[in-house]
Specification:
6-stranded antiparallel beta sheet; 5-stranded mixed beta sheet; 11 strands; about 0% helix
């Protein structure tokens, strides 16, 4: 079975500009990777490649209780067959996600954000049926096309893990592994 690993960046960056002598911040995100036999791209479902998945900007008071979640944001992992990536007819794939910053939540069901920024907040990932995909647990099986690109659709959202959410950047880096036949 072929295994493909990559990093998916989920982030929230906020900068506000005002007249006069105000300052702000620009956050640059990106990565360089070798690909593999079947390079996988992070895309807006049905559209083009995403540089990262933006979960939006929220006031800390949005998160009124532990477990408060933001609206889901769709993203997909696109598998494109070509001369180096041959996918058999009726093939299926499972995807496993792993947080570079560890698990979060009372049972480790969420993906932790990078330290030094927002506190008591994590990322939740769901499959196309909106069922949670916990860290290191394989997703449901996705059908793959053998002669055209397949978008493996997921959703992500911020979720509060404490009574109050502290302000700051909320960036989560998540590796994924696509298990192809």
């Amino acid at each position: 079975m072929k295994k493909i690993m990559m990093t998916l960046a989920l982030s929230l960056a906020s900068s506000t500009a005002f007249a006069a002598d105000e300052t702000g911040r620009i956050n640059f995100h990106g990565s360089v990777y070798a690909g593999g036999t079947c390079p996988i791209e992070v895309v807006d479902p049905g559209a083009g490649v995403l540089p990262w998945v933006s979960l939006g900007n929220y006031l800390s008071k949005y998160f009124t209780t532990p477990g408060t979640a933001t609206p889901d944001v769709a993203f997909a992992l696109r598998v494109t067959p070509d001369a180096t990536c041959v996918i058999a007819p009726n093939a299926k794939a499972k995807i496993t996600f792993e947080s570079l910053h560890g698990p979060a939540g009372t049972g480790g069901e969420f993906y932790a954000v990078r330290g030094g920024g927002a506190t008591h907040i994590a990322v939740e990932i769901k499959d196309e049926d909106k069922n949670r995909v916990e860290p290191l647990d394989p997703s449901k099986e996705y059908d793959l096309y053998s002669s055209q690109p397949t978008d493996l659709k997921f959703y992500a959202a911020y979720v509060s893990t404490g009574a109050t959410v502290g302000e700051g950047l909320a960036e989560a880096e998540v590796n994924f592994k696509v298990e192809l036949p």
